[in-house]
Amino acid sequence: RRGRAGRVQPGECYHLYPQCVYEAFADYQLPELLRTPLQSLCLQIKSLRLGSISEFLSRALQSPESLSVLDFRINHKPQKSILCLGMT
Q: How many Cβ atoms are within 10 Å of 11's Cβ, its own excluded?
């Protein structure tokens, strides 16, 4: 067994794919912050007034590439692109 079940009790694991496929697997899945689009997260950071998007994300254990943050900031200029719903 692998994962938490493997650490808690003994057991057997039956792989339903070839050994070469198994060996090509990454040891761990990339964090969601690195494998998903950042639009929603960046909008949440701005709406919660947590400061600069890039500064906030740089404090993550594994921060996203600066290009993906820059891409969001270029495509969402502050002039009217972010609306505060329920606020005037």
A: 9
> pLDDT tens digit string along 29-84?
888 888 888 888 888 888 898 888 888 888 888 887 765 666 666 565 555 555 55
For residue 88, being part of any structural domain is answered with no
pTM more than 0.70:
no
Q: Is residue 20 part of a domain?
A: yes
In a domain, 44, yes or no: yes
Tokens of 32: 């969601």
Complete DSSP assignment for 35-62: HS-SHHHHHHHHHTT-S-HHHHHHTSTT
Query: Does residue 42 lie in a domain region?
Result: yes
Domain of residue 63, residue span: 3-75
